[in-house]
Amino acid sequence: MPFERTFAIVKPDAVQDGHVGEIIAAIEQGGLQIRGLKRVQLTPALCKGFYHEHVGKGFYQELEDFMTEGPVVMLCLEGEGAILAWRDLMGATNPANAAEGTLRKRFGTNIGRNATHGSDKPESAAFEVGYFFNAFELG
Description:
The protein is an alpha+beta fold. The chain is built from seven helices and four strands, in the order E-H-H-E-H-H-E-H-H-E-H.
């Protein structure tokens, strides 16, 4: 598997419920290295840029409202096969369908409030990491 970077978000529901430490521990135990980490409060403008492919879709406003309701923790993760490794740790988008022990099964409540986000392919990872981190923030 290629050595790669991926982007992760601990979403407002998981931050509010105090699961950031457990999620970071799972990342490290899963063999991924954290190259960048920051806690931020997203704005509607940042959401529109980040989720640009979803703007105008029926679910977009609900997504923006959720992602701006409280702080999030953003991470740049690195490792062998990092994109797939992070997606495996997260589990299925819908927590009801996620495998036991995955982060979304443990901390998500429904398809919209599912605790974490992760890039789905190398192109998305490059855009998402670059959207929120500059070169000086990545170790």
